Amino acid sequence: MKATFAVVKRLLASNKLSYILTAIVVLCATSSGDVVLSNGNYTWLLAVLTPFFFVCYDFTKLMHLGASKKDYFIGCLISYGILSFGISLVNTAIHLLIDPIDPTRTVINLMDVCRWTENGIIAAGFQQMFFLLLVMVFLHVLLSMQPHWYGWLTDAVIAAVICIFTPIAPLRGILSGFFRLIMLNSNAIAHIGICLLLSAVLALGGLAVLKRKTL
Amino acid sequence: MIELKQVTKQYGQAAVLKNITLSIDAPGIYCLLGRNGAGKTTLLKSIAGYQNITSGTIQVDGKPIATSTLDPGVSYIENFAKHFNLPVRKLLRIASQVNPDYDVAFASDMMERFELDGKKKFNHLSLGMKTMVSTIICLASSKEVILLDEPVLGFDAIMRVEFYDMLAESFQKHPRIIIVSTHIIEEIAKTIQKLIVLDKGSIRFFDTLQSVEAKAFGVSGLQKDVEAATRGLHIIGREAVGGLVTCYIFDTPPAPAASLEICPLSLQDFFIQMVGHKGGAAR
Q1: Fewer CB within 10 A of the end CB, N or C, for chain B?
Q2: Is the pLDDT of residue B50 over 50?
Q3: pTM of the predicted structure, to 2 decimals
Q4: Which chain A residue lies closest to B80 (C-alpha atoms)?
Q5: Confidence class of residue B282 from pLDDT cuts 50, 70 and 90?
Q6: What is the pLDDT of residue B281?
Q7: Which residues are bridge partners to B183 per DSSP?
Q8: Residues B162 and B22 placed together within one structural domain of the fold
Q9: Domain presence at residue B167
């Protein structure tokens, strides 16, 4: 496990650019009007940026340092877990401490939009954490597949599903049902369970892609 | 132990490795020689599990090797390996953390010997120093198979001598299979035990240096005398200048005669004759 934690440490340390970009956006984003977006929402940017660095920048360098694919795989999952916890913690803190500062303005935080706060703030924090974990694992797998034909095929399928399912009402219902399940879900246990299950399935897919990855 | 059975690697229609069967079972320093494009890097990357082969099997210590092997137990370094842009000392420390049983003392010793500035960031190093850092990381790992792909690229003469010493010291400290691919043949001869010659994707030669010393000769003289002396011997090359002919053999040398000049071949000449090309054309 020592090697795995060394990989985790390196992955998190070499993700500085993501931290800086996210911090800049969170600190500098401004909204006007009576209804404004919470700056905490922008912490999610870190979940989107991180997989790019883990997949495109860190993998080759860690391999050249002698790390094994096994340690890289487990290290990525642990890092995503740590980061999703951290992002959730910061956004929840912003939601609790900064959003209510100006009572004259309505501040929209995605935790409210997704109806997670209906279950209390702690459950909402965990729902957010596992949703972000799912997002990061999904992006990781999608990015890992890009050098292969099946990566492009997956891109095309995702684009096709969105393009075809959105304008057709019955299909739109399926699509919105899926998003209600993974995102806009007020049932905390079901939501966390689905996010964990999908993350596990995607992680297994990611392992299969990693096993084909060349250097 | 490395075992390759009928290994073929194709890129589209082009076969880079052709039906290679090779067994390396004893620890030692092995030199992999071959012309540019002979398939050396492909062979080493395949043994390291960095890429898949088209057909055949590769095993290291009985474990099948492919990209799906999550921990192949092989340390491979290529000459332009990219690393995190961190100070050298920190880079070596991270390598020691991600590699179980990493030889920290060896890495520190080598860093001092090669006067590597531990505070200097990797991207600020010269090509030779970058290669040296990669090589130290590779040799300090505890893996039982070490693959070095053209490690002396960018080294000056003094660094190359130091490198060969480092290789020998590393092997003495931790005997294992070390395969070094290089183009600088004569310099590495003192360090290696066995020679692997790869030509156009096939193994042309795999034996000890002693066998080269004992069997590789050039026999020169008049055509009829040379032909008579080398009849039935394994001829690996032939040159004719005017009426004089030189036959290069890999066999028991013929009995000395006044009409013949028999000279042992240098490793480089042996290699040139084995791969059978000069100026790009097959003889």
Answers
A1: C
A2: yes
A3: 0.88
A4: A64
A5: very low
A6: 42
A7: none
A8: yes
A9: yes
Q: Are B116 and B147 in contact (CB under 8 A)?
A: no
Percent of chain A having pLDDT more than 70?
A: 100
Using a CB-CB cut-off of 8 Å, the residues of chain A touching B137 are 64-66
Residue B148 has pLDDT above 80, yes or no: yes
| Torsion angle, alpha carbons of A12, A16, A21, A22, to 10 | 30
Pair (B221, B169) in one structural domain: no
Average pLDDT value for residue range A183-188 = 89
Range of the domain at B236: 211-282
Do B134 and A10 lie within an 8 Å CB cutoff? no
The answer to whether position B12 is within a domain reads yes
A10 in reach of chain B (CB within 8 A): yes
Across the interface, do B71 and A70 touch by the CB < 8 Å criterion? yes
Handedness of CA B250, B253, B254, B256 (dihedral sign): positive
- Name chain A contacts of B146, Cβ cutoff 8 Å: none
CB atoms within 10 A of CB A53: 17
Instruction: State the pLDDT confidence band at A146, using cuts at 50, 70 and 90.
Output: very high
Question: For B55-107, how does the pLDDT look when each residue is reduced to its tens digit (9 = 90+)?
Answer: 999 999 999 999 998 888 899 988 788 899 999 999 999 999 998 889 999 99
Residue A101 is classified by DSSP as G
- Per the CB < 8 A criterion, the answer to whether A10 and A59 are in contact is no
- Residue B176 is which amino acid? R
Q: Which run of H or E residues covers position B23?
A: strand B14-24
Q: Give the mutation candidate from A64, A70, A209 for the B interface (greatest B CB count, under 10 A).
A: A64
Across the interface, whether the CB atoms of A65 and B70 are under 8 A apart is answered no
What is chain A's mean pLDDT, rounded? 93
| Closest residue in A to B140 (Cα–Cα) | A66
B104 at interface of A, judged by CB pairs closer than 8 A: no
Please report the number of interchain residue pairs, chain A to chain B, with beta-carbon separation below 8 angstroms: 71
Q: Average pLDDT of A181-208?
A: 94
CATH of the domain at B18: 3.40.50.300
Residue B9 sits in the same domain as residue B148 = yes
Residue A79: which of A136, A154, A144, A24 has the closest Cα? A136
- Whether B205 is covered by a domain: the verdict is no
